[in-house]
Design a protein that fits this description.
The complex is a heterodimer of chains A (115) and B (369). Chain A is α/β, with parallel strands linked by helices. Helices cover 19% and strands 33% of the residues of chain A. The relative contact order of chain A is 0.17. In chain B, a hairpin with a 2-residue loop joins β7 (299-308) and β8 (311-320). Classes of the chains: A alpha/beta (115), B alpha+beta (369). The interface between A and B is medium-sized, with 34 and 36 residues.
């Protein structure tokens, strides 16, 4: 099992991510997976090869708050998650509007199992 | 857009498309470069030319078939992909891999690093117009892929990893050939280091170009030689559960310049170091089995990281107790190095863009999966 996973709710997300930013943690990436009732998003951080993860759960039609205003590098990952799973991401620093990795005529949300 | 100062037009801003074809590298990344005369003032990336949706194959391929899918995420560092995938499954299922298998994985991983870095060094030489150096590095790279063919049966996608170990062993002849190879390469790589590191034309073309600081690299999530070129001592080979590195003499290669020269020298010195690691691993190769027979049906989630030639590779796996995974997530190093690239470009000359782009060693097929 994965060590150092901290379960947080949606409302805490930005404050927790800001804390990691202040601590100088490197954002590795975000991982998104589909659950029965929605999605879970893991935020992976590293400091001297020690990983910390935050897990946020969101409902199927709920939007995800972008962390790209805290970690600018997250914008590519969040755009990709949005395209792969059809999740709406609010306040993206740069919104590719579904065309970062997919084309306009690509299948929508290709990694979504329960459509 | 025109910029005026006291009624005089100083410069005009224009948008110049760069890519998806790179002058020397067949990796499709497109950049919208905002220029003020010849100086880059901003850049926006566009990818999506080779997106395959490989992560979506978890429903169609079982756990063992996915090893071969993961190998095909990247055509250069394929072994590290399958190694990271197998290590994640092994951690999740508490499978104890035989020591000999860990050493064999490490030997092939470092051979992949050598051929990947030589490929890159050749392309980099070509990018700044040093074609004879390009030919020499690729000539030597052929010897590296030849030794992979002799030891694993194929040249790049060697398909040696299985869950529980490896499926090919080294016999005495192969071990002798590997020892001869590492001995010969020592002298060759030292000559390359001198050629790349001391040549005035190369220094002029790369030093002080595309500078990025350690703080900026961490802030933007950079990894691998790109990160270590800015003085950050971060390397996943230091992790205790990756291959057999904990039993080998290993210290991450770091350069402090933060520029194209520093990133080039990290890769050059890592090529020499990889050769030493192969030599040490071959000399220490323990006897014993090369795999354990397992039929994994993982349940739960796990993460593994290993150090690819381009940097940190991360696999997240979630299993549901069946022969198919629930989720496979792959984070490749180039994906993490695109934001730092966008920071390196502003302030550089348009003519330096192909060189700077190359210094992150972009692998877009990896990035898009």
């Amino acid at each position: 099992m994965i060590e150092n996973i901290i379960e947080i709710n949606k409302g805490e997300l930005l404050s927790k991510i800001s804390e990691m930013h202040v601590q100088g943690q490197r954002l590795i990436t975000l991982s998104c997976a589909e659950d029965d009732d929605g999605f879970m998003v893991l935020y992976h951080f590293d400091n001297d090869l020690k990983m910390t993860h935050f897990r946020v759960k969101i409902g199927r039609d709920e939007p995800l708050e972008s962390i790209s205003h805290i970690y600018w590098a997250a914008l590519l990952i969040e755009n990709e998650i949005s395209e792969h799973f059809g999740i709406k991401v609010n306040n993206l620093a740069l919104n590719f509007a579904g065309t970062l990795v997919l084309a306009k005529d690509s299948p929508k949300a290709p990694l979504l199992k329960k459509k | 857009m025109k910029i005026e100062f006291g009624g005089i037009i100083l410069a005009a801003r224009t948008i110049v498309p760069f890519g998806p074809q790179h002058p020397v590298l067949p990796e499709p990344i497109h950049l919208k470069l905002e220029l003020e005369d010849e100086i880059v003032v901003g850049a926006l990336p566009q990818i999506g030319y080779v997106h395959r949706g490989l992560e979506g194959l978890v429903d169609k391929k079982d756990i063992n078939q996915l090893i071969y899918v993961c190998e095909r995420v990247c055509g250069i560092c394929s072994h590290q992909h399958s190694m990271c995938y197998c290590e994640t499954i092994e951690k999740l299922c508490n499978i104890e891999v035989p020591e000999r298998a860990k050493y064999l994985r490490t030997i092939w991983a470092e051979l992949h690093r050598v051929h990947s870095h030589l490929l890159w060094l050749g392309l980099f030489a070509d990018a700044f117009g040093y074609e004879s150096l390009f030919m020499q590095t690729w000539r030597v790279r052929e010897k590296t892929v030849d030794i992979m063919e002799k030891t694993a049966g194929t040249r790049i996608i060697i398909s040696v990893n299985v869950v529980g170990g490896v499926r090919r062993d080294l016999d005495d002849n192969m071990i002798t050939e590997l020892k001869d190879y590492t001995k010969e390469m020592k002298g060759v790589f030292e000559k390359f280091k001198k050629a790349f590191g001391d040549d005035k034309a190369i220094i002029n073309r790369t030093q002080g170009i595309g500078v990025i600081t350690a703080e900026q690299m961490i802030e933007l999530g950079g990894v691998g030689p790109t990160l270590r070129g800015s003085g950050v001592k971060q390397d996943c080979r230091l992790l205790p559960d990756v291959g057999a590195y904990k039993n080998l003499t290993f210290e991450p290669i770091v350069e402090n310049g933060g520029d194209c020269y520093a990133r080039m020298m990290v890769r050059m010195r890592e090529t020499i170091q990889a050769n030493e690691l192969i030599e040490e691993a071959v000399n220490k190769l323990p006897a014993g089995p090369i795999n354990v027979d397992v039929k994994p049906k993982p349940e739960g989630e796990q993460i593994s990281r290993i150090e690819q030639p381009r940097g940190e590779l991360m696999y997240y796996i979630r299993g549901n107790g069946t022969k198919n995974l629930d989720r496979l997530r792959i984070r490749t190093p180039t994906f993490s190095n695109i934001p730092p690239l966008l920071k390196m470009l502003p302030g550089c000359q348009m003519a330096d863009v192909p060189v700077i782009v190359l210094t992150i060693d972009p692998c877009i097929s990896c990035t898009e999966r």
